Amino acid sequence: MSRGKSDLAELVADTNAIAAAIRARSGVLVLHAWWGLNAFFKDLCKRLAREGLVAFAPDLYHGHVATTIEDAKQLRSKLNKQQVEADIAAGIEYLQGLDAVTSPHLGVIGFSLGAYYALGLSIDRPDVIRAVVAFYGTRTGDYARSQATYLCHLAETDEWVAASGVKKLDKALRAAHRSATFYTYAGTGHWFFEKDRADAYNPKATRLAWQRTVAFLRDTLAA
């Protein structure tokens, strides 16, 4: 499913997706967790912009936002894979069309649900994706076509991400000869990076993960 320019404009306007740029050349796609494009992920784009990156977050739920796990499960269950892929493709087109983005290669940051799609994007769009940051999420698959470098942030205790899945991802990336770094943060659970998740947020781990993420994106996308 493809989108024209008018469809992209509607996507941006209707979902309040954020595009922020401050004297930057490298573009970064931000893929939200199963909560939807809430205030946290919008603010994350602004934070990336303050670090000298161009960030864009497409709304994969088209305006719907969940605050509870049950609501998030409902929204996720209604996702249409083709529509999600079309929205992400539109996001790539939008980023590449910004004057501030001068590099044809992009980075992508994904959280949980978004991490799954971020990892898949590196397989599907090896021509574009050069840096992948995955927060508490995995995806099995054949990464042989990928041209990306990977940074994975994991929780020490995570009921939503199986240890076996992490091992399979590590094995798949190694088999594809892709450079990948995995960090596990002590005393954390799923969603530890998201400040609006009071039951999970871990300030110390978040600061370290953020420092590592910014350094990784700068170094990888500048290469």
How many helices?
Answer: 7
Question: pLDDT below 50 for ≥5 consecutive residues: which ranges?
Answer: 1-24
* Intertermini distance: 33 Å
- Give the class from helix and strand content and strand pairing: alpha/beta
Helix content, binned percent = 40-55%
Describe the fold and architecture.
The chain is α/β, with parallel strands linked by helices and 223 residues long. Helix content is 42%, strand content 16%. It is built from 7 helices and 7 strands; from the N terminus they run αββαβααβαββαβα. The protein has a 7-stranded mixed sheet, with helices on both faces. Helix 2 links the parallel strand 2 and strand 3. The longest helix has 20 residues. 41% of the residues are buried. The N terminus is likely disordered.
